[in-house]
Design brief:
It is built from 16 helices and 24 strands. It has 472 residues and is of the alpha/beta class.
Amino acid sequence: MTNKNIKPRRWCATLLVLAGLSALLSACSSLPTIVPDMDTQSARTIQMKGGRGVLSEAQSRAALDKLRAQNADNTLLDRHVAIEGAITGSPLVTGNKVTLLIDGPATYASMQQAIQAARYHINMETYIMEDDEVGRQFADLLIAMQKKGVQVNLMYDSVGALNTPRTFFQPMIDAGIQVLEYNPLNPTQLRKDWEVNQRDHRKLLVVDGKTAFVGGINISSVYSSGSFSTRKKKPQLNQDGQQIPWRDTQVRIDGPVALEFQKLFVDAWNRQRGPALGDHRYFPPVAPVGNEIVRAIGSSPDDPYSVIYATFISAIQHAEKAIYLTNAYFVPDPQLRDCLKDAARRGVDVRLILPSHSDSSLVLYASRSFYQELLEAGVRIYERQDALLHSKTALIDGVWSTIGSTNLDWRSFVYNQEINAVILSAQFGVQMKNMFDRDLGASREITKQQWEQRPISERMKEFGASVWARLL
């Protein structure tokens, strides 16, 4: 599969957005103004949950003590726990095991293993599901599990699967899998108002309510090769015919927080007025399997504002040492840009790894239109080489990590359904830092001096793309 197969999705979504501009803007959600005035004095007051419900204050302290034992700077950890806990929304959940998955091959192997081990149900939500080798592998596996008596529920996005023929889903439907198309483009298939600009960009898999996968990886053969591998299988091709593998990140989480991701899936399904999910042990008792504190956060254009956006802004505002962001589509709003600049000016090491190649040149140039002001503030910017960067991760102060589907752009924060995991752990932070350093080693730094010498033709492209920044 080449870019010819992928680009139409992003461009189709863009054209649909521009076509309905005036009507859509009047109905869209908003970005909140986040101020750093939360009560962050003591993590002891933060309410947490475990596999058996809300923890007592003593149990919460015990969970934090396990994390502190891993961390040389407990003050930073306590502050970020307090910051995260002060944001309204889903709870902090203890007792989880978190596994970092880099690129498609490792992610698909872990997902397929979890699916094969399912006993009661499999809930999958994805933006793209291709009719290709990887898509057919997953379809066949889901059908096999449905025939074994495991209830499979699949929700995919209408724009994301624009190139996937509806006949691809029919064998799954015939096998008893419940398949739901999110906000169908075809008005005759609507179950609610026609909201073409609202898309389901989530990538979520929940198995038996005990295991959840979250990240940026869709179901597509473009992920068949690892971006750090010397052996490339079905690699992506750029316009010059050069091989470009896709670089992405997923996380597997075993433990009680899987139930919070389950809630997000069920809520999204019900908002789309999908068929009844039935009784398949969607919310079983889940015993602790690790020591990690995790928060499941989801956003929807139906919400008053994006909790994921509020979480990002708050974590950045309270950063004390380092902010390491890796993101595929970086089109930040003014508040996010100001937060990054303010952090750099107060001495925080702010580094961004962004794409040098993209499946949308419009987004790429819109992203670059913000480089100048960030570089002048001391933010360091790198572009990942030899891979199409699709990852959406962040590491702050070595203790606050997030992995999910959320890009740092208006579309993710206002128009899309998104989903992220926030992991509060110094031990997991080390893994995130090692991954960031690997990407850094495969990236080229963009210096202020170099950027000021770019051609006028590039500046014109950046300006033209920036006009549509809010809608990309």
